[in-house]
Amino acid sequence: GSSLEAEEHSMEPPAVPEEETPLTAASSPAGCQLFGYVGIEAVLDQMKIKTMKMGFEFNIMVVGERRAWGLLPSTMVNTLFKSKVSRKASQAGQEERIPKTVQLQSVTHVIEEKGVKMKLTVTDTPGFGDQINNENCWDPIIKYINEQYERYLREEILITRKRKIPDTRVHGCVYFVPPTGHWLRPLDLEFMRRLSKIVNVVPVIAKADTLTLEERAEFKQRIQEDLKTHAISVYPQEDFDQDPDDRALNDRIR
């Protein structure tokens, strides 16, 4: 029976495979052209083109006591981004008046470099630490940061959300440490201890050129010891050390 079935099947005409129609520009809709080779290796180029077209958003907050030390965080920000992105006075030739309270003020600029656009938002905190009683002076800053997280989350959980959600979250907080040359003050420790739990804190020694190289190195060592003693985790945190390459880079930054 098996041999007969084999003969019956062999007598059937062989099935002619249907000719596959190659995908060309002619078979596509009118006016539509193919983009060439499509593969896994082309994903990075596609993501790069899309990201450069949309641009980046970076929100930075600068915090520092000014009245006692004459610190100007805006000068550091202008130097960092090679443009005037700080808050200016309303009239030319007049010094900006420092508020008596911590009033957060944000300025947004669009910076372009070699075809890459970045929407930079600088949030200034004038009046921080300038009072005689600085108790709970960090509350307005913490409230502002949490509000930005909540605003972004409300937009993200919507069913019909926007294609691109405006990102107002604070990505990094630059905290300017007064150049005392000794230890971190209780105000510095308390502020970084509270803020390091909700935002990336980057401590920066302000007016470091007023210290000698030996004093600056010793001051940095004391700051690191204070941060370790009080369990303050500044950027980069240890949570970012999962990849070996990232761990080596983060160790160098620390």
TrEMBL record:
It comes from the Eukaryota. The gene is Sept12. Gene3D superfamilies: P-loop containing nucleotide triphosphate hydrolases. Residues 1-26 are annotated as: Disordered. The keyword Nucleotide-binding applies. PROSITE patterns: G_SEPTIN. Residues 54-254 form the Septin-type G domain. Keywords: GTP-binding, Nucleotide-binding. It holds the Pfam family Septin. One of its GO terms (molecular function) is GTP binding. PANTHER family: SEPTIN (PTHR18884). Residues 1-11 have a biased composition (Basic and acidic residues). It comes from Ibidorhyncha struthersii. This is SEP12 protein.
